[in-house]
Amino acid sequence: MNGQTFHSVTLDPAKCTGCTTCIRYCPTEAIRVRKGRAIIMDERCIDCGECIRACPHNAKKAVSDPLAAMERFNIRVAIPAPTLYGQFDEKFTIDRILSALKGLGFDQVLEVAWAAELVSNAGALSVDQRQCKGPMISSACPAVVKLIQVRFPSLIENLMPIQSPMEVAARLIKERFYPGRADVGVFFISPCAGKVTVSRYPQGVKTSAVDGVIGIKDIYVPLRNTLPGTVELPLAHASGRGIAWAHIDGESDAVGNPAGISVSGIADVISVLEALENGKMANVAFIEALACPAGCVGGPLTVENPYIARARLRARERRVVSRGHRQPPVAADDLELGWEEPVQAREALRLHPDMLKAMIMMEEMEVIHASLPGLDCGSCGAPTCKAFAEDVARGHVVITDCIFKLRENVRKLAEQLIDMERIQPPGLDKD
Amino acid sequence: MKLHFDVPGDDLSLAGKASSELKKALGRLGIDPVTIKRTAVAMYEAEINMVIHAHGGSADAEIGPAGIDIRLQDSGPGIPDLDMAMQEGYSTAPEAARELGFGAGMGLPNMKRNADDLRIESTVGVGTTVTIRITLPGSTTKAP
Ligand SMILES: Nc1ncnc2c1ncn2[C@@H]1O[C@H](COP(=O)(O)OP(=O)(O)OP(=O)(O)O)[C@@H](O)[C@H]1O
Ligand code: SF4
Ligand code: SF4
Ligand SMILES: [Mg+2]
B2-135: what CATH class? Predict the structure, then answer.
């Protein structure tokens, strides 16, 4: 969506020292340091969380809803991401984790992992029937979808037009369990900052069925404390196939296309998308791309180390290959899972809506860039000299915000002063 | 507006940087995604060829309201038989490049498919110059 103003990743101005560490890590060059504080350009931010990981002062955070947000609703439903199961030791069964979650004040719990199995089936079909040139790219990771909207608009046609497991789980609650009721609140228990944003500005659907997003880290302690004394209810329905969506390779295995590849971590995702845009990967049918390291287990709202979480999840997956003996929680085979509307390119990097004006600005940008030292030192607050040149051309900053340019100007000024000093006023000229 | 890129030779890990930069520039100008993709494919293949077959060279792009003109110049070995080189599957890529997935002999045919005009001038022992023209949609200007 263009013109969006809210996104989850934000700055805590009290903690930011203006050290400029984060600006280099942002994949869309969305951060600048101005007046000693980092600011995020909303239209460019894809909520990948890289700046949260990079900041040495914990000044970047992902805003999510507090547990108390559920109090606005009569009926409260939690839909946990499978990543939640990886946060706890395997001695606690998934039934127990879900029961403890319910015990925090929810009337019902439905696993997003179970919805992920429905999405896997729809995904497999859409890969087989794809109309686009080249592979389908999973649209489950909101940061990857936004990365494509901002940096790779030519690949929008490759995005899988299927709703995310979170959205499907929330819709099942609203449409199948409580049809027609307005007092039902659905809360996603999330490892992911991007999901907070898409619950308000959705991708591919007109409005999201999710009412709030609660970070895993915000409920970790109360959950951990109640786990030992919780009475287990038979709440788990997902098989290993759905649970595996929490980490890299999970979705690929669930979709089951042998010509698939999976990639995680924003830098590697970008290089795969670059290769795809350059016409490589002709024989690939499906790309699972997750912005966080090792997949959702590496999300900024998690507690456990991503690789430990993944190992635990894989152990759980081996144990619950299938839960065929339990009835599915609800009939869902006839649910329409396709996108309701297309995802659009976000022209956040465009210099000017008029191409001729944009060309003039870019020429200016090139001239400025050529005059800069090329050290990418960051002291101007921009990630690279090129980005600084762009900011000058856009009129956001002045050239003397570069300390080298400032020094150059000061030297010129000093030379002029010396020259002026040599000139005698005409009245004192005794020649 | 003009852009210049130096393409260092023999370092395959850096290959693709010039086409990536050009792509970013086209995005800043608001060029449509289909044209960006065509340009990316043609430029990338030409850039890689320069790295693999000709120890690098330089690339110059001129972007105007009618289209994008790219000129890639190298002082490599040259191409003895152009018609042969243009055929799908023809490749003299060394083993090291093949191990990285290059050398299918698809680069030149792909460039031809994506460019509105492709010209190659090559002299054995002197070098190769590749000119690619991409016309912007809505523009009626013909290739020179
Ligand atoms: N700049 C160049 N200098 C010298 N020879 C070249 C140059 N570009 C292409 N060639 C020759 O033309 C052949 C065909 O090029 P083409 O790009 O079609 O295939 P390739 O580079 O061998 O493999 P692929 O592009 O599929 O990785 C090359 O193998 C090489 O012999
Ligand atoms: S890394 Fe960025 S957000 Fe963190 S203190 Fe430095 S400038 Fe501020
Ligand atoms: S969340 Fe990602 S895209 Fe947004 S400002 Fe941070 S690093 Fe940049
Ligand atoms: Mg080639």
Answer: alpha beta
